[in-house]
Amino acid sequence: MSEKIIESTGLYKSFPRKGGAAQTATHYCPGCGHGVLTKLIGEALHDLELQDKAVLISPVGCAVFAYYYFDCGNIQVPHGRAPAVATGVSRATDKVVISYQGDGDLASIGLNETLQAANRGEKIAVFFVNNTVYGMTGGQMAPTTLVGEKTVTCPNGRDPMTQGYPVHMCELINNLKAPVYIERVALTDPAHVMQARKAIRKALEIQKEGKGYTFVEVLSACPTNLKMSTTETNKWVNEVMTKEYPLGKLRDNTEATEVVRPASDFSKEALDKVFGAAKSEEKAASSEDLPDVQVKIAGFGGQGVLSLGTMIAQAGLSVGRNVSWYPSYGPEQRGGTSNCSVTLATHAIGSPVIYRPDLLVAMNRPSLEKFKNDVKPGGVIVYDAIMGEVEMPAGIKGIAVPAQQLADEAGNPKGANTVMFGVIAALGVTRLPDVAFRNALANSFAKKPQLIPVNEKLLDFVRDWAKTHA
Ligand SMILES: Cc1ncc(C[n+]2csc(CCOP(=O)(O)OP(=O)(O)O)c2C)c(N)n1
Ligand code: SF4
Question: How far is the CA of 61 from the centre of ligand 2 (A)?
């Protein structure tokens, strides 16, 4: 009698991990469904000639090392983020995209992304390993844990009164219009494995044809966390788990589905158009080739740190510089630390992150201490004089500004921020002309135009102060 043996041809021949010795066994526990599913997908990729065309997204969970096994394109992504990454790859390329996920990954931390990707009908084959627990982290309760099933986080068994009911992913997804194919299978014995094999191949064929979203849920044994033998676990899946999660095809719209969505245009020309790159290159070519200027402004939330940064960025924008403004603040509405980074450049800006500012504006002492050693040699630190004695790093010029006092003296007690803005204008570090600062003021107070002349007056007052003090 001839016997069909599933060949693991779509997998690497051996699996050397982290530069260690080559292994021919996976890292999965004996009897684990992941190992069987890996072989089935590998075999299908090979038989359908998809290895060069497929990108497999591996999750966080026991399948995190899938990229050591599948001989195709591989990406490993953060917990629950596979549908988002799969969407990107699927839309940007003509690849067959596979999202391989466990129940914690897909139905808990990644539930929203899962449903949204299914609802959008992304061209992705999702293989969902439902083993009713968080396997990798030691068997915590998962969204799919059965009522009464004991796990390390529900040692008395899942109680729906406190932990809710098991989540049925196939049925949830079957409520959405877009998916093309939905089936639930099991990996418990040869007959079920053969049915799973068919479903996997079907899902990948649909991807090969570019028809749309497919979802195959795979009931899978985790003998390690269920604390049973492989035979007992498989029996449990067949006899207990399938009562909660009935096997079978929930939808097959393959025949009725046409390939409708055109491939997205991710050509360089199209992307340049979206991001205005061509325009910015033109602008750069016609501008004076000034070096980049990087400014960091830091203080507490509520001190106008972010708006001061916005004003500097607006000043740059108004005279045709490329600018970036990059805020960073804590979760508190008020009082937490807050800073922003502003880059003014002639050419396109690659990253808004600043490590070595030319100018630091420090609104309080903790911010000054935190960032003062980052300032470039020859750079400037402007700080609020209220801090008192301050030690400057070697080669850095420090300017103490009595911001509130100057604002009061100028008859504009709410203008401490404009004082700092005026000092920055007077220093010339930003290499922006005077008109740029006036433009930014006008822009900032556009909704209260009566405040524009008041603040322009303050700007002039500060400029005079800076001539003698800075
Ligand atoms: C953002 C984040 N949260 C939590 C974790 C911890 N973590 C690692 S794997 C995992 C659960 C995986 O369970 P499942 O998706 O069911 O996969 P299995 O291991 O059972 O195959 C968790 C919570 C993490 N790595 N990252
Ligand atoms: S812990 Fe469970 S899911 Fe993870 S490899 Fe072992 S048997 Fe498989």
Answer: 9
